[in-house]
Amino acid sequence: MGKSLQAQQDFWIDNFSCRQILPRVLEIANGEKTQEGVAKMNVDASMKENRMGLDIILKDSDNFVLCGRVIFIDKVANLEWAKLDALFIGIQLTQSLNLDKVIFKMNCTYIVTCLCKHKDDITIFGYCIKEVYEMFNSFSKAEVK
């Protein structure tokens, strides 16, 4: 047994007067449960200097992680374009896995709003939003939250 391990066991101190940092009982952070047979995909993007990072996590209705993907791209874009790229790749991933019912979650209200009003925008970004919206037709149920 190493000296550090022996010292850790010899000087084990429990302080019951202070509140624990980590709770002993695991709590469910979000009370909403997805319907049976509906997958949930979280997409996100981040930017630093001249690089973008796209994060995609796919979970089943029991919050079991089915797959995930992290992609780093050496190009400069604004954050909305990066998040739209992450959503586009996430849709392609779910289509390749032949999933039929998917809820896409992202923290970009601008893109969610654009998807709800996809017919009003005539910009290049609006055209890409329409392409994403048309990709949703391959699913029997697709939502963006």
Task: Report what the structure shows.
The chain has 145 residues and is α/β, with parallel strands linked by helices. The chain has one domain: Nucleotidyltransferase, domain 5. Helix content is 32%, strand content 26%. It has a five-stranded mixed sheet, with helices on one face. A hairpin with a 2-residue loop joins strand 1 (39-48) and strand 2. The mean pLDDT is 74.
Structural topology:
Elements: H1 3-10, E1 39-48, E2 51-59, E3 65-73, H2 79-96, E4 101-105, H3 109-116, H4 124-135, E5 141-144
Helix pairs in contact: 2-4
Protein name: RNase H type-1 domain-containing protein
Domain RNase H type-1: 42-144
InterPro entries: RNaseH_domain
CATH class: Alpha Beta
- For this structure, the CATH topology is Nucleotidyltransferase, domain 5
Based on DSSP secondary structure assignment, what is the total number of beta strands? 5
Morphology: globular
Secondary-structure element order, N to C: HEEEHEHHE
Q: Which architecture per CATH? A: 2-Layer Sandwich
CATH superfamily membership: Ribonuclease H-like superfamily/Ribonuclease H
Distance between the termini: 52 Å
- Average of per-residue pLDDT values: 74
Strand order of the largest sheet: 3-2-1-4-5
Report the C-alpha radius of gyration, rounded.
21 Å
At a glance:
With 145 residues, the chain is α/β, with parallel strands linked by helices. It contains four helices and five strands.
Structure characteristics:
alpha/beta, nucleic acid binding, 145 residues, 4 helices, RNaseH_domain, 5 strands, 32% helix, RNA-DNA hybrid ribonuclease activity, Nucleotidyltransferase, domain 5, five-stranded mixed beta sheet
